[in-house]
């Protein structure tokens, strides 16, 4: 898509030219102080939740913008306010602290129905990590995930709506709370969401093992790390099959698998 249609801009009452933003699979645009992107099945639900959240000194969210006819979706697009800041995957403790406040703010939100019909490598990978579905998988996947499967045990934790993809989706700006964007909705314990963020930081963003130790007070931490890694690795398998398991990718996971198993006891 080389440009955003005037129909979309008009639907939201926008008059400034649309400029494509980096990231977002090159499908995110800005018109003035409004960000637009293609709507999904969860758009209206997420907009209702975010629009109702009280202001917080601990985190910001991008408030959704209604179309001129009052709907959250128009011409297949959704809109939200433009937030100041930039992501920084190195600031993991701040990301986790902001996420904890966000999860506390949404802890009474009911489970959305769209989760039951969402099927993609991420949603299915999550279900497999919690043994709600099963997978055969390639030999390379089975070998790598084996220690995690052996360490897996049932837990009793309360689930709620959480953000399941935090590290690259928290923005920082001087003098403002961190901003949580691009909410990937899951129905899991908040400590699982934190474990996914920590696992990502350890595997991909150069974090030291001490990051996991600083958050080990969270409920069932070892089991949440186990599930977080199974989730990420299963998503890789579902998306790429045996070709996903390059030497470098296996090497990125290996020490974090060992660390998670040590916490799982």
Rg from alpha-carbon coordinates = 19 Å
Distance between the termini: 50 Å
Tell how many strands the DSSP assignment holds. 11
CATH class of the largest domain: Alpha Beta
Describe the biggest sheet? 5 strands, antiparallel
Percentage of residues assigned to helices: 40-55%
Under CATH, the topology of the largest domain is which?
A: Aminoglycoside 3'-phosphotransferase, Chain: A, domain 2
For the biggest β-sheet, the strand order reads: 1-2-3-6-5
CATH architecture of the largest domain: Alpha-Beta Complex
Unreliable runs: none
State the secondary-structure class. alpha+beta
Give the domain tally: 2
Number of helices: 9
Order of helical and strand elements: HEEEHEEEEHHHEEEEHHHH
What does the overall shape look like?
globular
Average pLDDT figure: 95
Describe this structure in words.
By secondary structure, this protein is an alpha+beta fold. It folds into two domains: 77 residues, Phosphorylase Kinase, domain 1 (2-Layer Sandwich), CATH 3.30.200; 173 residues, Aminoglycoside 3'-phosphotransferase, Chain: A, domain 2 (Alpha-Beta Complex). The chain contains nine helices and eleven strands. The strands form three sheets. It has a five-stranded antiparallel beta sheet. A four-stranded mixed beta sheet has the order 4-10-9-7, with helices on one face. Strands 8-11 form a two-stranded antiparallel sheet. A hairpin with a 2-residue loop joins strand 2 and strand 3. Helix 8 runs antiparallel to helix 9. The N and C termini lie far apart (50 Å).
């Amino acid at each position: 898509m080389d440009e955003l249609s005037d129909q979309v801009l008009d639907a939201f009452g926008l008059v400034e030219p649309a400029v494509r933003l980096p990231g977002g699979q090159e499908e995110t645009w800005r018109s003035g102080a409004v960000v637009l992107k293609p709507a999904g099945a969860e758009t209206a639900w997420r907009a209702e939740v975010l629009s109702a959240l009280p202001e917080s000194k601990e985190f910001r969210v991008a408030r959704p913008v209604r179309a001129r006819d009052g709907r959250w979706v128009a011409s297949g697009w959704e809109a939200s306010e433009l937030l100041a800041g930039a992501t920084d995957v190195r600031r993991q403790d701040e990301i986790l602290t902001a996420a904890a406040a966000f999860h506390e703010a949404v802890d009474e939100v009911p489970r959305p129905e769209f989760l039951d019909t969402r099927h993609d490598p991420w949603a299915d990978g999550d279900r497999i990590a919690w043994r709600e579905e099963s997978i055969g998988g390639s030999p390379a996947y089975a070998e790598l995930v084996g220690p995690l499967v052996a360490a897996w045990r049932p837990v009793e934790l309360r689930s709620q709506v959480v953000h399941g993809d935090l590290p690259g989706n928290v923005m920082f700006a001087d003098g403002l709370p961190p901003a949580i964007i691009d909410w990937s909705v899951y129905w899991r314990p908040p400590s699982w969401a934190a474990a996914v963020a920590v696992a990502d930081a350890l595997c991909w963003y150069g974090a030291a093992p001490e990051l996991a130790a600083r958050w080990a007070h969270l409920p069932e931490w070892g089991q949440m790390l186990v599930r977080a890694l199974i989730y990420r690795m299963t998503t890789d398998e579902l998306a790429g099959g045996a070709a996903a398991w390059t030497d470098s990718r296996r090497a990125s996971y290996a020490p974090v698998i060992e660390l998670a198993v040590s916490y799982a006891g």
